Amino acid sequence: MIDRGRIAQALAKHPFADWIVFERDQELAVRDGARGRTELRSRFRIVAHVDTPKGRGTARLAVDTVDADADQLADRAVALAIASVGDSWETPPAAAPARVELADPAFDDDLDAIADRVLHAVAARNAVIGVTLLRERVASISRSGFHAEWRATLARASALVIADARSLLIEREARQLDALDISAAIADATSDLHALARAPAATAGPCSAILTADALVPDDLGVWAAFAAQADARLASEGLSRFRENLPIVAGADQMPDPLTITSDGALAFGVRSAPLGDDGDAVRRFAIVDRGLAGTLGLSPREASLRKLDPNGGVRNLVVRPGTWNGQADPSGRLVEIRRLRSLAIDPYSGDASLEIALGIEHGKGPFTGGTLRLDLIEALARARRSSARMRRGAYDGPSSVLIEKAELLV
Amino acid sequence: MSWNRREVLGVLGGASASALAWAFTGCRSSPTVRAPVVPIAEGSDEVRAWLHDAVASLRGAGFARAHALAVRRTRATAAVDVLGSSVARARADGVVLVVETERGVRERASSELTRGGVAAAVRALAPKATAPATIEFGPAPPAIASHGELDSIGDRELIDRVASIEHRELPGRVVYAAGVIDIDDATVWSVEEHRDLVQRRVRVRRAMTRVAWDRERPSAIEVSRAWSGGIDDQTFDDEQIAYARDTALEVMTPTAFSDGIHPIVLAPSVAAAVIDAAVGALLTSRAQMRPEVVARLTADKATASPALTLVDDPAAPGTYGGFDFDDEGAPAQALTLVDRGVTIAALADRAGVAAKRAQIAGRGRRPGHTGPVEPMPSHLRLAPGAGDIALADGFQLDSGRVASVDPASGRAVIEIARARELAAGRPTGRVYSDLELVGDLATLLGNIAEASKQTRTFGIRDERDGLPTWRSIEAPYLRGSGMIRARRGELA
């Protein structure tokens, strides 16, 4: 049987340059239709480095059971680290973990009973709802003797909403039960299904497009994921990122009336990607990916930070996009479409090129339509988009609730 | 099914083969390795005894049905590229106990596959259980083969297997070459009344990548094989190695592709991508919770081409996605989904049958064998035709990548790496890159005129919440017509 203390003792017997052990004790409750599931699991994660004349080798081990031998794990870590020697680098000095609240007190009860309450609180009869609740205790110990410990909660809900012989699948994720707001999401989806029932096929042509909440962030980071990819340090070091630090992300991006600013905030209270420490034990920090139209800081692991002689920041986490001043008004002379729902969103993380397959749009002055594709260079389009002053928070995104892209081409 | 070109290049540089291994295995960073705990075969009877006790206790507590499932999994991935080599290993155990009550199904999962862990799971479901029931479990299963366990194969041996093939025939213009072998070895125990089952599956995927520069863009090709059985049962032959090399070196046509409806031949990889996406979106009992899917399958029941017959066959020998029994304990049985163009069945788990969305269960599969159950395919086989097929004028679509089918609308979008133009039955030499085949799925399948005799098989390993799923697809070439359009502008 293992625990983090035994693993730490075993690692200490070997000549590692550095190491950290994470222990996660997780409890889950799942409701899916008439099926109820509970789960207990222990997960250990070890990151260990060895320095050799050829460079530094790193081993990452994950063990999903307590039924293991700590000495065997340490031996395996040595072997793996030696087999994976790369560049030479030094672990940056330890910094204080981010102070961030991650545990919702509403989870302080029997998880199974809470899941029942969540389901019963949703009055909608036209939805098949699934709920997953996670409560975990995370603890870490490092070679230097540094300890950290925190609690976290996470709720996920999915609903297959059915109306007018049509359906929409919606998913929400939040660290607080109240933030799930699944009833409102079902009501919105129901309204959109009624619109879909009378929607003709899209017609092709140039237009201005408004991306509203569910089209802007249909999952995780939604269209803003294009920026997270550009801030990947490894991508940048291989010359595959479009961003160059302190240069405009696209020509003229810094000259816009309301330049784009995007911050990675891993210390956002109850952010789904928030954490005190990064995956390699580095302290999570807030940093600007895009600062008033200029490329900002990359997400830096300890390795990438050391090679650049900078401080690590825990990598790209929740994205906070500064709202704009757009009040929802658009030029009434041109064609204006409001994109409400997507069938699919495909983003090339390297180029930012994206295909947005439209499930439901509203053409101003005409009404709903379905189908069609918007093909956008998301970096360009969002750098120049007008951002609403109204904001929303969904999953790992916190920012404007809609954007206006003034030059788009609707393909059918 | 293959990587985006930039994704392949993204693993170049300092990341080397270790990153390649994890790009292949779906992880984001450098290797995460699960260390061995105990040999898989060791203690098989002990695990069965724990599960017997659990089922007896749960039945004794009054549950009408009790099912116990346990798994021990190990994994090894070896990667070799032009910059180096790396091996990663993983190990995971788990147990799931399932009971049926008047109010529905309840289950308890745990990552602790020990006597104490199983007993604790029983107590969680039946805190007041006292006397175990007497249960007839049926005949004991045959002993599982214990030879060839992954932990007994050295890292160097795995790397040598990859290097012996993947470094052959590399002309100077090939700027990147890589190979991966990825092996999952899972032993699963399934126990309920009258069923005492155990199966061991060793699933193997091999992939080989070649990248060459084509003007200012990289041109990448991946060829792969997937099977279950012995680690060395299959390898790449000279023809496949040459195909990878020659395809990477092919010069793409720089002019813009003319979007439109064209006569096409779908290579097996494209056909497989279409079928995989279509089955997931439409032909499972879960998909049929959507009213549009039910309506579409009713209206379009017979609109696919008579050239198409689709079977899901978990019992087909040596298949990557196959199994002896599903994760609800149902024995493997082939199921015809589409018979000469007519949709006749859907893949289902027990819940799907109980909800009357399908007639036969047997595809209740759990990610990692212990995750939440859902209906999933095993080994999909699109029936071959009688001979070779030929296209006079049009495009042969090669290297299918991501495919999506919207279950609500039936719209299909399939990314295509290459389209070779054909005229009078011969290649014109024009090869277009980065296209997509789009349109209504029923129309696309209705336009299929014939299938080829020769087929290819593809294995897919997905992860859900960190837990793996395995499936495979065997598909022929298909001739038909469809809307093709460029995904990007002209080559720079």
Spell out the blueprint of helices and strands.
The complex is a heterodimer of chains A (412) and B (492).
Chain A: H1 4-12, E1 18-32, E2 35-52, E3 55-63, H2 70-83, H3 111-121, E4 127-142, E5 147-163, E6 166-174, H4 177-180, H5 182-197, E7 205-211, H6 213-216, H7 225-230, H8 233-237, E8 262-264, E9 287-291, E10 294-295, H9 302-308, E11 319-321, E12 336-347, E13 353-363, E14 367-369, E15 373-377, H10 378-384, E16 386-387, E17 391-394, E18 397-400, E19 403-411
Parallel strand pairs in A: 7-12, 11-18
Antiparallel strand pairs in A: 1-2, 1-4, 2-3, 4-5, 5-6, 7-19, 8-9, 8-11, 9-10, 12-13, 13-14, 13-15, 15-19, 16-19, 17-18
Chain B: H1 5-10, H2 16-24, E1 32-33, H3 44-60, E2 65-81, E3 84-101, E4 104-110, H4 115-125, H5 155-166, E5 174-192, E6 195-214, E7 217-228, H6 238-249, E8 260-266, H7 268-282, H8 291-299, E9 310-312, E10 335-339, E11 342-343, H9 350-354, E12 364-365, E13 374-375, E14 379-382, E15 394-405, E16 411-423, E17 426-440, H10 441-446, E18 450-464, E19 467-486
Parallel strand pairs in B: 8-15, 14-19
Antiparallel strand pairs in B: 2-3, 2-5, 3-4, 5-6, 6-7, 8-19, 9-10, 9-14, 10-11, 12-13, 15-16, 16-17, 17-19, 18-19
Helix pairs in contact in B: 3-4
Explain what the structure shows.
Chain A has 412 residues and is an alpha+beta fold. Helix content of chain A is 20%, strand content 37%. Chain A has ten helices and 19 strands. In chain A, the strands form three sheets. Chain A has a six-stranded antiparallel β-sheet with strand order 3-2-1-4-5-6. Chain A has a six-stranded mixed β-sheet with strand order 10-9-8-11-18-17, with no helix packed on it. In chain A, β2 and β3 form a beta hairpin. The longest helix of chain A has 16 residues. Chain A is globular. Chain B is α+β, with helices and mostly antiparallel strands and 492 residues long. In chain B, strands 4-3-2-5-6-7 form a six-stranded antiparallel β-sheet. A five-stranded mixed beta barrel of chain B has the order 8-15-16-17-19. In chain B, α3 runs parallel beside α4. Chains A and B meet through β2, β3, α2, β6 and α8 of A and α1, β1, β3, β4 and α4 of B. β2 of chain A pairs parallel with β4 of chain B.
